[in-house]
Every structure is written in structure tokens, then in C-alpha cells.
Amino acid sequence: MIRTVFLGLGRCLPERVVTNNDLSQWMDTTDDWIVDRTGIRERRWVGEECGGSDLGAEAAREACERACVPLAEVDCIIVATLSPDHAFPGTACFMQAKLDLPGVPALDIRNQCSGFLYGLSVADAWIRCGTYRRVLLVGTEVHSTGLDVSTEGRDVACLFGDGAGAVLLGPAEEGSDRGVLSVHLHADGHHAKDLWIEAPSSRTVPQRITPEMLAEGKQFPKMRNRRVFTSAVQKMPEVIREALAQNEIGLEQIKLVVPHQANQRITEAVAKQLGISDEIMFSNIEFLGNTTAASIPLALYDAEQQGRIKKGDLIMLAAFGAGFTWGASLLRW
User: Fold this and answer.
1) Catalytic residues
2) pTM (2 decimals)?
3) CA atoms within a 13 Å half-sphere pointing along the CA-CB vector of 215
């Protein structure tokens, strides 16, 4: 049976570092307040005109370079993002042009924080059935240009960072036991308005956004904090156990759990639910913030650089986010 392996990882982070003390100049907050509630000390924000396709293209190039695979061999592009360059066309098409890969299919995945896992599911299916052999899967976000950085918006604004993480995927060598063992995806649209941006919206007539909507701040993300926290802490352990059960693998065999970096307090609560140590539950949110669809590939990049994952290790990926959507994937690295 063909399995999908991670051939190379890449990343791109804006140079601009925004600390909690920087945020305190724009809103009523402190470093202690933010760290206590989120575990975040700093994040990267773009400092000039820049889209997710720009960050994603740089991350994709590095992923190919580290895989020792020429960019020209890429035969499919999947981009997960909640912050597209434009309403249309998709960010994947803008990124494809920057990579100069005309004719290669380019697909956007709009599943927010779970977007990377949804994209992995699609890529895995295509590689398993032989449709494509070299798939670039990219999570990329530019949040900073769409945040309310006033005191009213601080609960959300302090969380998010910009950045891109990319993986080059391909079929494992014949006889290898490495690769994606399974992917498990879920959603519950009853909670769609618990974490969302209301405007602009094609539902509103006659215009998608009005001066009144802007004055009310409907263009900024809104979150029901307690509901999101409670659901994330419930659903991520559930889907992790689902992946373990399907593969008949015990949690004690997992080398590293790499969760979506939503909030350090969520990560700690999930670890407690699973009964695992901080050594098993990877975190890099302290210095990058929540980069939604980019957070898992960025975390994998850091974990590999730190020697936390090695060839043959069992790795669990997990995410929860807007929609609500959630999922997990078990890999043999």
C-alpha cells in the first residue's frame, strides 16, 4: 500500500517581531496579562505589503530545497489559509504564479485552524491513488492586517501571528513503513458563529460591506472565548484517541504530539486530558503566536530543527478551530 511521506519542510516568517509590550502601546494590556492567558510573548507581523502567497512561496521553495527535489517536479499545490490575498481567485493560484509552475493544479482549503489537516487528507488521497507524486501543502496566514488592535479587540488581537509553513509530500519508497497512517476529520457548523468574521458577506444586500458595518467593527474576528476553549479541550483528545484506536497504537508509543498552536492554555489542558508530559506535547506558540493553518507545519519545522522528531518516530498531529472543525493525523516520520 502506498503511503504519503513528508519529504521536506520549509517556513517563512516576517522579519518584524511584535512583543506584548509593543501591543500595550495600542491597547490596555500588559505582558503579564497576555502571557497568563495565552502563553504568548511575541509574534511576527508583516511590516509592509505582503500576502499569504508571498510567504507561502518562500516556504515552498525551502521545502523543495530541503527535500532535494527540483521545484519543477511539483505537480500539485494545496494552500490552507483563512486570510486569502483576495476574495478571488484563490491564494494557491497567486502562489503558483510566484513559483512559476503554470499548468499545475492549485487548490485553496478554507478550514481555518484545521486547514492543514484537511489539506493533508486531500494530498494523501491523491498520492495514495497515484494522481500526483509531488504535492506542495502550504499553510500560510497574514492576520495582522485584519485585527482590531484597540482595547476592545485585545482578546483576539494578542493571539495571532503571520507566517507560512510548507511541506513537500510524496509516495514512500516501496517496502517502507513510513508515512501518513491515517487522517481523521470532523466539523460542527452549529458553532460557526462562535469564532468568525461577519463582514464582508455576500448575504448582505445591496452591498457586502457598508460604512455602518465598519463602524460596528464587523470586519474584525470575534470569538466566544469560553466556548472555543471548552470545545477544543474536549475535541482534540477525542480525535487523537480516534486515530490511536484505528491504528491499534497506544499513546505511550507516540514520540511527539504536535497540536495546532491556538493558545498555550489549551495545549496544556489537552496534555492533561491525555495524561502526557510537556516533553511529548510540542509547543512553539510563545514566540510565534497563533498562525492558524500555518501553525502545524511551523511547529513541525521547529521540532525537526530541535531534534525532537527523527526518522521512524510516531508523530500525532491535531487541530481545532473555527467552524467548528477539528482533526488529527498519525504519521510515522
Assistant:
1) 113, 260, 290
2) 0.97
3) 3
